[in-house]
Structure formats: C-alpha cells, structure tokens
Amino acid sequence: MFSPQGPSLRELCVQALSSVERGYDLLAPKFDHTPFRTPDSLLEATVQALESEGPFGRGLDVCCGTGAGLMTLQRLCRDGITGVDFSAGMLGQARAAYPEATFVRADVRALPFTGEFDLAATFGALGHFLPAERPALFEGVFRALRPGGVFAVPMGVLPPPTSVAHWTLTGFDLVMRVRNAVLRPPFVMYYRTTSLPAIEHDLTAAGFAVESIPLTSMGKYRDGDPRCWLTLARKR
Asked: What Pfam families does the record tag this protein with (predicted)?
C-alpha cells in the first residue's frame, strides 16, 4: 500500500493486531514509505520557527521512530542529538540513518534523563499515549531539560466537521476503540485525544511556560484556522 516500497495491506493488519511496540518493530523497515512518517514540510516549518529560539546545545527526539525528527534537531543543536524510542526495530532504522547520533531504548513515560538537554521535540507520537499517561511523559521531558530548555511539539489541528478528513479520523478512532475493547494487547493510536488545548493544559501542569504559534507555511483551512501549530513549552 501507499507505494511499491510500502507495507502491504496484510502487513498493516498484522501490525494493527499487535501491541504498539511489536507493531512498530514489524513496520520499521517500510515506515518511511508510509503517510505515517512526519512530512518534510512540517519538519522544515518547525526548523524555521525554532531558528530564532536557538542555537541550542544538546537535542532530544522523544519517540524518534526511524529518525525523521532528528534531521530537525541536527540543524538546530550544536552539541549532539539523542533519539529515544521503545521499538528496537525503529531504533535500528534510525541508527542506520544517523550514525552520529546517540540512541536510547526506553519507555518515554519514564525517561532516564535529568538536566541533559536544551531542546526536546516530539513529532506525531502523542496519539500513542492515553490522556492519563501524558503527565508522566511531560514530567519526564521537563526533568530531562536544563533550566530554560524548550520542548517543541508541532501539531496538526483536527479538520473541521464539514470535511471528509474529519470524519475519516473520527472513524479511525472509533475502530481503534472497538479493536482495543475486544483484543489484547491494545494498540493505542487516537487522533481526537490530542487536541491543542489538552496538550497545552498538560504541559502547563507539568511546570512548563507554554505558548503556541501557528505554522503558517503549512496552510489554513477554509475558515481561516491554521492547519498546524507549534507548541513551545519552556522549562521555567
């Protein structure tokens, strides 16, 4: 599906019936040939928005996957970059793409860092965490940053209810909830649980000073609302 190099429908079904970790281990070799990879346009928009905040020292990609976000950190951080993920398969792909980076296999709900980084970022991974799990994730990022450090979270906005995309994502969430109600282990991936206000609220509760800026280069919906925002959470 998606391209000749992408996963087949059967492979996607096997992934969806696995746990999150096992599913991404299976998908890793073909992940970059799917729409699930963060688009280069969003990565570039994030770099442009963060350039005025830097330069930064050390950078951390939270849930780095195959390493697309490391390209962003590499351009912004002068003292090295680290990727952390719990999928061995995804980390293997990232190591091949960025041999100069440091990689750590860990559950990001219990990040093993304290005061080591000046910039942290996560790209497209928050849907893999239930709302009740986000506080532990954000508190771990807060702990990993040095005072004054920044946690950057680029986020797409749910399309308006008048769009086909809105109901496609809503239907996806419904299917995943039904799947997780009847099958174990669960595969957590939801779109409607990661609204911008919810993320801002949880980051503030973790101790960050939070602001969100529109990524205007990513375009707007017909009602004029930006399609994407960059949330900047600063360690006080």
From this structure: Methyltransf_25
Nearest to 143 by CA among 182, 116, 180, 125: 116
Contacts of 12 (CB under 8 A, 6+ apart): 1, 27
Helix, strand, or coil here: 87?
coil
Q: What does the pLDDT read at residue 2?
A: 65
Could you give the domains of the chain?
1-36 (no CATH), 38-158+195-235 (3.40.50.150)
Q: Mean pLDDT across the stretch 14-42? A: 84
**Helix or strand or coil: residue 120?**
strand
Mean pLDDT of 37-48: 94
Of the candidates 105, 38, 106, 107, the one whose C-alpha atom is nearest the C-alpha of residue 73 is 38
Tens of pLDDT, residues 51-106 = 998 889 999 999 999 999 999 999 999 999 999 999 999 999 999 999 999 999 99
Could you tell me where the DSSP H helices lie in the chain?
9-16, 20-27, 40-50, 68-76, 88-97, 134-144, 164-182, 196-205
